[in-house]
Amino acid sequence: MGDHHHGPAKGLSRWLFTTNHKDIGTMYLWFSFSMFLLGGFFAMIIRAELFQPGMQLIEPAFFNQMTTLHGLIMVFGAIMPSFVGLANWLIPLMIGAPDMALPRMNNWSFWILPPAFLLLASTLFMEGGAPAAGWTFYAPLSTTYAGPSVTYFIFCIHVLGLSSIMGSINIIATVMNMRAPGMTYMKMPLFVWTWLITAFLLVAVMPVLAGAVTMMLMDVHFGTSFFSAAGGGDPVLFQHIFWFFGHPEVYIIILPAFGVVSQIIPAFSRKPLFGYDSMVYATASIAFLSFIVWAHHMYTVGMPVAGELFFMYATMLIAVPTGVKVFNWISTMWRGALSFETPMLFSIGFIILFTIGGFTGLMLSIAPADFQYHDSYFVVAHFHYVMVAGAVFSMTAAIYFWLPKWCGRMYNETMGKTHFWISFIGFNLAFFPQHFVGLAGMPRRIPDYALQFADFNMMSSIGAFIYGASQILFLYNVIATIVAGDPVSDEKVWDGAEGLEWTLPTPVPYHTFETPPLVK
Amino acid sequence: MGFKAKQLCKLALGPVLLFMSVSAMAAGGEASSINMTPGVTELGREVYDLHMIILWICVAIGVAVFGVMFYSIIFHRKSRGVIPATFHESTTVEIAWTVVPFFILIAMAVPATTTLLTLYDTDNSELDILITGYQWKWKYEYLNEEGENVSFFSNLRTPQAEIYNDEAKGEYYLLEVDEPLVLPVDTKVRFLVTANDVIHSWWVPALAVKRDAIPGFINETWARPTEQGIYRGQCSELCGKSHGFMPIVVNVVSKEEYGEWIAAKQSEATEVKQLTSQDFTLDELMVRGESVYDTSCLACHGANGEGGVGNAIAGSAVATGDINAHLEIGINGVPGTSMQAFGGQLSDVDMAAVITYQRNAFGNNMGDSLQPVDVYNYKER
Predict the structure, then answer these.
(1) Claim to verify: residue B282 and residue B307 sit in the same structural domain
(2) In the annotation, is A512 catalytic?
(3) Is A374 assigned a catalytic role?
């Protein structure tokens, strides 16, 4: 028996050949953080150019490459892999499984990611530059009118689609087959539930994205005209396919974030999550609705009015389950015994800012008003409230919450709280004014702007620099914790934390739950 | 305790006051720098009202929800020695906060539907204008009888020197064009919107109009401006390098002024046709050619023909080679590159002038020239 309880292999081969869910989770998290810094660096370039009216630092063509790469890297390289990393670390621990169901595939899902992003980043050095049609890469700008780098970009999308699909299949297989005895579906922690639903969304829509880019490839190289009107194709078809993927995609990003917050709020409220069942049903309803609302991204393309009305009503409906979630979180806090450690601060920040993003989302769903909001900075503000203050804040909360459990060392609380307040102020300074310039008529994705937008843009840039700088503090805090944080040995770490992962020793051993726990 | 509750009130009041001031400013009808403009059309005012109603509903819900949350944050603290409650579900409450929002949504959907139907009602227009998006300019064609033959391109007028900070920026920096779209006041205008290359989007906030310009499709929308004035907008769909540099300017004038303008444009069109049969001296061609170059070529080929996105003109094989090969590129472009076909965009006079200019400027000294009739013949060949 003793022989089987070996630790990790030594050196590089530990990471290259590992099938251990904790190692793979760690690699996902570090990889996504490095992509977060890269995408953030591009954002800093964008905000530096927009600091003042006029072209100062870069050329318009390069500006478009920056916005495109910033979006692609943040969505596919930073946020999505970070939650996959979290799933790898936590799902087996939360359901009492020894590892993921398909460990070798798990290794492969991770290791095809770095080359894919290396390929994408390398297009910056190609003749004609990186893709520049935006992260939504609408045809024909991304096909007939694109540079040679589009082919490499398509290959990159295929590879990371492959990675996502394998990762999702793994999560579905793990959750369905490897739950500890007594862990019924309705006893699973909400993070597991949200990821299970997310994984189904991924399996459903990543192939659709693959289809879209394959059609692009055909248009570029093999003389087809899927998206070219001159050859009998339809440029709007691209948008329908893209958003049929793209709308579920935004829920793929936000649902695991909901899961994280649903774990953390009860822990620091010292009170069970309010309305567990309704949280599960709300998550499922959001997932279902995400498939029938895609065209609200395209109100201005000239759909028939009946289509507009359908998509408007369906989109408005999303407010109901989303509202249920927010109400449940607040009811969880109500009459709890709250304390405000860093993970809780980020979770409360999440609720406030995500709700603001939800409100602007509701405004955007109103089709006739959206004709004015569409493609303006109002939209930019909206989706950064849900993506950054939503997904990234919850991810940050998750790291502060579980890192002490993983490595048996406590992070520096003062530094953590400082990180929160700098992030919170920087974020709002960066993105709140964008609502104003958007409403006042500033289109998105422009490298230079009219003079009446100057003040708010300068504010926005300063906020972005502050938010960007706060991430360096975060990186430092995490490294300092792992290397020299104060040792923690309590199994629970947080007095209010509940769940199977908190029954394990701290730090979590390399192999866990080799004998399944019994869940009552 | 009292102190904290007061702070809380202030916190909640802040955004409310902000939004009140926003709405007060915008209600004055002037373009606001922090809110949507009600614009100068009936539809625009309807859209604006809808926007404000939804905003206020959101603010109200926000104040209530965050109020409860902050109450909890302040009074239900562990540091106050609170013993946590243990309740964790209530079907009644869950049903209530599912059903109540649903009814609020229905209340929002009713005015939204009416406004959307109005927005789609393009019938009974008094004037039709075809708008075509090009990389990176707009073309306007008047389709009614009195506007026959009137069509023109509208280019960014802001000089490169302002964009690259060599000169002070003017008041309408990046929102000025060489030739604005002119519309009569109190007239229902139908816009037919399409594009020549990639997708663009025609957005004028004051007219409450935004429609995607999609190659191969013609979208319809409309506006009925009720106030004279100059209204500015921009392309709002990413369309490549100069997406930020293709503004829209609409000049709404009295019906009489419009009548005079359209008549003048028509005779101008006739004149240009006549010019085609005229001969020009090299100097005349050079003067005209320079201004054509500045609006149509400079963005890609550089102020001194040094190149950029496009190839250099100075000393280039094309501009110093066979003149007909040079003209061919001007008229039909270079497929698969960003060099567009200008044959349909420039008049024969302008084409002749700009080709001549390129061959005799920037240190090129070919000494040859083209006459408009040469261009005409080359096209008819």
Answers:
(1) yes
(2) no
(3) no
CA of B71 vs chain A CAs: smallest distance (Å)? 9
CATH of the domain at B294: 1.10.760.10
Q: Do B241 and A326 touch (CB under 8 A)?
A: no
Is B362 inside a domain boundary?
yes
Edge-to-edge order in the sheet of strand B200-204: B181-184, B247-253, B229-235, B200-204, B209-213
* Per annotation, catalytic residue among A195, A251, A373, A502: A251
Identity (one letter) of the amino acid at B226?
T
Q: Is B261 part of any domain?
A: no
- Nearest residue to B300 via CA among A60, A147, A123, A52: A60
Of the three residues B85, B120, B155, the one that is the final residue of a domain is B120
A5 is catalytic: no
Is residue B242 domain-shared with residue B144, that is, in the same domain?
A: yes
| Co-location of B10 and B116 in the same domain | yes
Give the residue carrying structure tokens 């908190």: A502
State which residues form the domain around B302.
276-380
A12 close contact with B: CB closer than 8 A: no
Burial readout B101-129 (b: 16 or more C-beta within 10 A, e: otherwise): beebbeebbebbbebbeebbebeebebbb
Per-residue pLDDT of chain A (520 residues; tens, 9 = 90+): 344 556 788 888 899 999 999 999 999 999 999 999 999 999 999 999 999 999 999 999 999 999 999 999 999 999 999 999 999 999 999 999 999 999 999 999 999 999 999 999 999 999 889 999 999 999 999 998 998 999 999 999 999 999 999 999 999 999 999 999 999 999 999 999 999 999 999 999 999 999 999 999 999 999 999 999 988 999 999 999 999 999 999 999 999 999 999 999 999 999 999 999 999 999 999 999 999 999 999 999 999 999 999 999 999 999 999 999 999 999 999 999 999 999 999 999 999 999 999 999 999 999 999 999 999 999 999 999 999 999 999 999 999 999 999 999 999 999 999 999 999 999 999 999 999 999 999 999 999 999 999 999 999 999 999 999 999 999 999 999 999 999 998 999 999 999 999 999 999 999 999 999 998 7
Order of strands, sheet of B151-154, starting from the edge strand that comes earlier in the sequence: B151-154, B137-142, B127-134, B189-195, B219-223
Same domain for B134 and B223, yes or no, is: yes
Cross-chain residue pair A277–B37, CB shorter than 8 Å? no
Which of the listed residues B75, B102, B120 is the one where a domain comes to its end? B120
Topology classification of domain A15-503? Cytochrome C Oxidase; Chain A (1.20.210)
A57 contact B CB<8A: no
- CATH for B170: 2.60.40.420
Please state the domain count of chain B. 3
Cα of B262 to nearest chain A Cα, Å: 29
Question: CB-based contacts of B41: which residues, under 8 Å, 6+ apart?
Answer: B206, B207, B208, B223, B224, B225, B226
Q: Is B104 in the same domain as B219?
A: no
Annotated catalytic residue within A444, A467, A494, A501: A444
Name chain B contacts of A228, Cβ cutoff 8 Å. Answer: 216
A297 flagged as catalytic: yes
> In Å, how far is B170's CA from the nearest CA of chain A?
9
- CB contact A447 to B (< 8 Å): yes
**Same domain flag for B250 and B145:** yes
Residue B265 maps to a domain: no
Chain A partners of B299 at a C-beta cutoff of 8 Å? none
Contact A507, A22 (CB under 8 A): no
Q: Which residue of A has its CA nearest to B79?
A: A339
Residues B98 and B159 in one domain: no
Decide if B344 is inside a domain: yes
- In whole angstroms, give the CA distance from residue A366 to residue A312: 6
Q: Does A262 contact B at CB distance below 8 Å?
A: no
Query: How many angstroms separate the CA atoms of A94 and A508, rounded?
Result: 12
Residue from the list A301, A309, A335 with its beta carbon closest to the beta carbon of B212: A301
- Count of all residues that appear for chain A in the document: 520
Is B237 in the same domain as B160? yes
